[in-house]
Amino acid sequence: MIIRAYAKINLFLEILGKRPDGFHEIDTVMAPISLHDSLRITSTPDPNIRLTGRFELPIRYRETELDLARANDFWGEKNLVWRAAKLLQEKSGQPNGCSIELIKRIPSEAGLGGASSDAAATIIGLNRLWNLGLSHETQCQYASQIGSDVPFFLQNKFARCRGRGEKVESIERQLRLPIVICKPPTGLSTAKVYANYKNVDQITCNCSKMLRVLNCANARKIAGAMHNGLETSARALTPWISRISYQFSQLGSLGHQMSGSGTSYFGLFANPTTAQRATRILQVRLPNTFVFMGTALTPRRY
After folding, report:
1. Residue 96, pLDDT above cutoff 70
2. Residues contacting residue 164 through CB under 8 Å, at least 6 positions apart
3. I want to staple 178 with a disulfide (CB 3.0 to 4.6 A). Which of 205, 255, 269, 283 is the partner?
4. Burial 3-12 (b: 16+ CB within 10 A, else e)
5. Residue 202: what pLDDT?
6. Catalytic residue from among 27, 37, 118, 149
C-alpha cells in the first residue's frame, strides 16, 4: 500500500495560555497543502516494525536535511512513524509486523507538520492493511497520544484546532490557494519557540475573522486575516525569519507569515503565475533555502 502524507500551513495561530499539563492552549486554523511525503507500507508475518527511507529534496538542500536526520536518529524508534505503528500494533493485539518505506519531501523543523502527517498516514494505512476496522474516533484517540497535530492529519481538510491542537473541527470548504513556501537551512524546535514565547500584556487575536473569510473563499481576504502569535518568538531566535519576510514583501504576495513554530515561511498569491515568479526569484536570492510552490487545498491521500 502506498499512502501520501500531506504537509500543512497555519493560516491562523494564537497562543491562549499555559495549561496545567505543561502544554500551551492554542487556537489555530490549518490547511493541508500539496507538498507531501509518501509511505509504502507492507504487512509482514513476523512482529517486527521496520522503518527505512530516503530524502527526495532539492540537492542543494538535501545535505542540511541529512545532517538533521543523523543528529536525531531519524530512522529509529524516536520517529513518529515507528511510534504510531508500534502503538497501533499494541492496542489492537495485531500479531503481524510491518515494513515501512518513507520518502521524505517535507523538510524537518519547519512548522509544516511533516512528522505528524507521516504518523497519521501510518495509522490510516495500517488500519486498512491489518483490517483493524478502527473508527475515526478511535484513530483520533491513538493519534493524540503520538502528537498534538496528528489528529488534524487524519481528516485532511481545512480545520480549526484547539486545546493542544488535538480538538479538530473540520471546515467544509473546497479551496485552492496558490502558495509559495521558503524554508531556511536553520530549523527551530517547537519546544524552544514555545519556551521563548512571551505574552505579557498582549491582547490575543481572535480567529473569528479567519473563519468568516474562509467561508467567502476570497484569497485576498484570507491573506488579510492571517496571524501567527509565535512569529515574534521565532524571529528572536533566528535572523532567517525576518530575512525571508522581507523577500516576500517584495514579491507581490497577498499576505505572508511563518507557519506553525517555524522556520518555514509562506505567502499566498493571487494566481499561479505570480507564485511561479516569486518562486524563481526566491531560488536566486536565497539559494541555500528550500523553496516550494503549490496549493493549499483539500487533497486525496491515495
Report:
1. yes
2. 19, 23, 24, 25, 26, 144, 148
3. 269
4. bbbbbbbbbb
5. 58
6. 149
- The owner of cell 495561530 is 13
Residue 301 lies inside a defined structural domain of this protein:
no
Active site residue 149: yes
Task: Identify the DSSP state of 302.
Answer: -
Whether residue 130 contacts residue 100, with contact meaning beta carbons closer than 8 Å, is answered with no
Q: Which of 142, 170, 198 is the last residue before a domain boundary?
A: 170
Q: Do 129 and 41 contact (CB within 8 A), yes or no?
A: yes
User: Do 204 and 269 share a domain, yes or no?
Assistant: yes
- Tell me, yes or no, if 8 is annotated catalytic: yes
pLDDT at res. 150: 97
Closest CA to 115 of 178, 63, 194, 53: 53
Domain that holds residue 235: 177-296
Q: Which of 8, 104, 157, 183 is catalytic?
A: 8
Rounded Cα–Cα distance for residues 175 and 218 (Å): 9
Residue 182 class from Cβ within 10 Å (0-12 exposed, 13-18 middle, 19+ buried)?
buried
**Structural domain count, the chain:** 2
Residues 6 or more apart whose CB falls under 8 angstroms from that of 213 comprise: 221, 222, 224, 225
